[in-house]
Amino acid sequence: MIVLKSQREIEKMHEAGKVLASVHKELAKLIRPGITTWEIEEFVDDYLKKHGATPEQKGYKGYEYTTCASINDEICHGFPRKKPLKEGDIVTIDMVVNLDGALADSAWTYAVGKVSEENARLMEVTKEALYKGIEQAVVGNRIGDIGHAIQTYVEGEGFSVVRDFIGHGIGSTIHEKPDVPHFGLPGKGPRIKEGMVFTIEPMVNAGTYHSKMDGNGWTARTVDGKNSAQYEHTIAITKDGPMILTSQEDI
Known about the structure:
Blueprint: H1 7-30, H2 37-50, E1 54-55, E2 68-71, E3 74-76, E4 90-99, E5 102-111, H3 117-135, H4 143-156, E6 160-161, E7 167-169, E8 176-180, E9 197-200, E10 203-205, E11 211-213, E12 220-222, E13 228-230, E14 233-238, E15 241-244
Antiparallel strand pairs: 1-4, 2-4, 3-12, 4-5, 6-10, 7-8, 9-14, 10-13, 11-12, 14-15
Helix pairs in contact: 1-2, 3-4
């Protein structure tokens, strides 16, 4: 069942989204060669506490960390660790923020120092794919229109869209209906209605879209060792179009 959110609920989620967006803006200043994703984890944990928020994914299905920190060929759910990031790496930081019971979810890929032209282009295409998906998130369209727009653009640029991990509804819990694939056919899937709140979070690979799971049972990575990027926003559907609840432009 898809739960439609009230204006009040959306406003509360927007406040959580503002906290989350402000974290990402701080991370953009912080991430550089030599920093560890464990230091990023500690920074985010402290930042949320200072702003009256809590990390919703910490403890979710046994996950132990405030952030997911996925480096280079890791697609998602990478564990924070104490190995320093090096010049040319790319790292995706993903988190879910709980502010007074309202949730927001956003991931962002960061360049560590100067990155290769291929990595820069991978990041650029992935971010653009996110916004092409958001453009389709309007009342009357279908969920498949979002995935089709993303897949068509990404594959046209010579990259691939991950199939094993998708966007999702969000509200009082991290994962709700509808499922939001980043691939598929236009005109298919649930009709998009005012009051829906869900994430769009394309994961884009430089090589094949296939993934494999690490032994920790959480971290997914590319099967060919090529890099992956991800950008994610939480959006609310309004009669006037999609509202980005985790927009960094609000801060």
